[in-house]
């Protein structure tokens, strides 16, 4: 059952009469919490070639390093929410389980970083506060809690226009200049698009891109309309051509490619 319209009208009015930025974002977080309780809230801006900018969070001091500082040090490059922004997902409410593939919990991002957050569920509002800028307002529930239920999801989706406006005003009011990223967004896109392409066939290259996004062999087979066995053959062949033996080495090679001159730029391969 939807909250009484008058209740929402009063709450939204209260939010929008706050000063843009931290006061308004805190009022927004409190309102969202009233019908979809969360343990942590964090807002990141992804703007141009800059590092993710944390505009607001409700983290206790002892968790800031893990949730914010460590994330900005590099893991954001493999975050499904960040990738959703990078690849132009429409504004809306998304769940980690919706954006991430089925194999997420055995993937590199989970092993290297996400498991340390000890979450049972995460939702994210993807918004576009300005041209060239995307934002993610994440709502997180800690380990031991329950995932967001359908009623909470429905109400949160209804709240999207309010979230979009508050985030837009926070973007306009921000005082902290964004820091230059180690890697420009254009560079990440370029490396993702071209990674290994001079060594791999077109089909192997497509499978490599899907692997980088965390898809399992079963999901790749379904997307490409081939058998799981065929995917395994292509995967074995691309590992051999890239001179690696495991998924961990595959992700490590991709990260090194991001951080250095292309490893394979001088090699040539006749793609089929």
Automatic annotation (TrEMBL):
Protein's GO biological process: regulation of DNA-templated transcription
Keywords tagged on the record: DNA-binding, Transcription, Transcription regulation
Pfam families in alphabetical order: GerE (PF00196)
UniProt cross-references to Gene3D superfamilies, sorted A to Z: Winged helix-like DNA-binding domain superfamily/Winged helix DNA-binding domain (1.10.10.10)
SUPFAM superfamilies: C-terminal effector domain of the bipartite response regulators
Entry keyword Transferase: no
Annotated InterPro entries: Sig_transdc_resp-reg_C-effctor (IPR016032), Tscrpt_reg_LuxR_C (IPR000792), WH-like_DNA-bd_sf (IPR036388)
Location of the HTH luxR-type domain: 193-258
Molecular-function GO terms, alphabetical: DNA binding
CDD domains in the cross-refs: LuxR_C_like
Name this polypeptide is given: LuxR C-terminal-related transcriptional regulator
Lineage start: Bacteria, Pseudomonadati, Pseudomonadota, Gammaproteobacteria, Pseudomonadales
């Amino acid at each position: 059952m939807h909250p009484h319209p008058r209740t929402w009208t009063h709450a939204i009015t209260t939010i929008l009469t706050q000063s843009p930025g931290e006061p308004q974002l805190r009022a927004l977080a409190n309102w969202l919490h009233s019908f979809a309780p969360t343990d942590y809230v964090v807002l990141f801006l992804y703007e141009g070639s800059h590092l993710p900018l944390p505009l607001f969070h409700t983290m206790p001091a002892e968790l800031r390093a893990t949730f914010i500082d460590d994330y900005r040090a590099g893991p954001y490059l493999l975050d499904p929410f960040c990738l959703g922004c990078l690849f132009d997902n429409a504004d809306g409410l998304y769940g980690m389980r919706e954006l991430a593939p089925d194999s997420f919990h055995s993937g590199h991002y989970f092993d290297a970083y996400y498991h340390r957050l000890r979450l049972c569920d995460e939702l994210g509002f993807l918004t576009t506060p300005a041209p060239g800028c995307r934002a993610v307002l994440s709502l997180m529930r800690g380990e031991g809690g329950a995932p967001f239920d359908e009623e909470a999801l429905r109400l949160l989706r209804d709240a999207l226009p309010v979230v979009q406006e508050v985030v837009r005003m926070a973007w306009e009011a921000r005082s902290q200049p964004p820091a230059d990223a180690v890697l420009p967004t254009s560079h990440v896109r370029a490396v993702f698009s071209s990674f290994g392409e001079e060594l791999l066939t077109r089909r192997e290259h497509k499978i490599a891109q899907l692997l980088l996004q965390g898809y399992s062999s079963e999901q790749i087979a379904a997307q490409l309309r081939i058998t799981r066995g065929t995917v395994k053959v292509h995967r074995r062949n691309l590992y051999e051509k890239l001179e690696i033996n495991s998924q961990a080495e595959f992700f490590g090679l991709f990260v090194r490619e991001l951080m250095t001159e292309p490893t394979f730029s001088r090699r040539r391969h006749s793609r089929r």
